[in-house]
Design brief:
Helices cover 43% and strands 16% of the residues. By secondary structure, it is α/β, with parallel strands linked by helices. The protein has a single domain, classed as Aldolase class I (TIM Barrel, Alpha-Beta Barrel), CATH 3.20.20. Strands 1-2-3-4-5-6-7-8 form an eight-stranded parallel barrel, surrounded by five helices. α1 packs parallel to α12. It is globular and about 45 Å long. The structure holds phosphoenolpyruvate. The site of phosphoenolpyruvate (PEP) has 13 residues, from β8.
């Protein structure tokens, strides 16, 4: 099954509207025909609408880094799926480890967010991944299995094509440590077999699974060459367009 590759950039709490526009212009001007990879950017909420037109011209899809699980209501400071669609987002991240750890999001809440995103018309990147302690105690597969089964609970098989999984080991995010291609491939194959066990082999083999965690130009090629790694979710190295382009060339 051939799956279209994806390169996604998570800008976290960085960049003004002007910085974001300049980034897109630089990227577009230097992409040089690398069009066989889907490009997704996750800027701040406040940047999504203002950069929408530039993103469309540059063939980039925009997403949010989070959403609230309720449709609307008295949730001061929160942003709904419908608002994100209204602002021009077509994707959202759900369950990023910074949300799980710093904002205490649990699997139940993450599942509600995935379901709300889908009913709002957003596609989802569901992030999963173990901590260093969980890996060292050999619990990494058990943790990722739980994050997948609970995160995707009550989601119909027919909706799974709207979802991408990002395997992001927590110990590799923003630390400069990367999973070896062998360890990453092993986990990606495990994720695919888990998805197959609760849906259908055909759905699992068409699902895209990204690796995230200190992806850089010098490690991207080996990671992206692994058979079950369909691209990357990049944090720090997505902030400069030249570095992101260098990662893109690794495909
Ligand atoms: C991320 O935040 O999703 C991420 C992978 O960050 P970094 O590339 O900086 O490790």
């Amino acid at each position: 099954m051939s799956r279209k590759k994806i390169l996604a950039g998570n800008w976290k709490m960085h960049k003004s509207i002007n910085d974001a526009r300049n980034w897109i212009r630089h990227f577009q001007g230097n992409r040089k025909g690398v069009l066989h990879v889907d490009i997704l950017l996750f800027p701040s909420y406040t940047t999504i609408y203002p950069i929408g037109k530039e993103a469309i011209k540059a063939n980039i899809s925009l997403g949010a880094q989070n959403l609230h699980q309720e449709e609307e209501g008295a949730y001061t400071g929160e942003v709904s799926g419908k608002m994100l669609v209204d602002a021009g987002a077509t994707w959202t991240l759900v369950g990023h480890s910074e949300r799980r750890i710093l904002f205490a999001e649990n699997d139940k809440q993450i599942n509600l967010k995935v379901r709300r995103a889908l009913t709002s018309g957003l596609q989802v990147i569901l992030c999963v991944g173990e901590t260093l302690e969980e890996r060292e105690s050999q619990h990494h597969q058990e943790v990722v299995r739980r994050q997948l089964t609970e995160g995707l609970s009550e989601i119909h098989h027919d909706d799974l094509h709207q979802i991408i999984i990002a395997y992001e080991p927590v110990w590799a995010i923003g630390t400069g440590k990367t999973a070896t291609p062998q360890d990453a491939q092993e986990m990606h194959a495990f994720i695919r077999s888990e998805i197959s066990s609760f849906s259908k082999p055909k759905i699992a083999s068409s699902m895209r699974i990204l690796y995230g965690g200190s992806v850089k130009p010098d490690n991207a090629k080996e990671l992206f060459a692994c058979p079950d790694i369909d691209g990357g979710l990049v944090g720090g190295a997505s902030l400069k367009p030249e570095t992101f382009l260098a990662i893109l060339r690794a495909f």
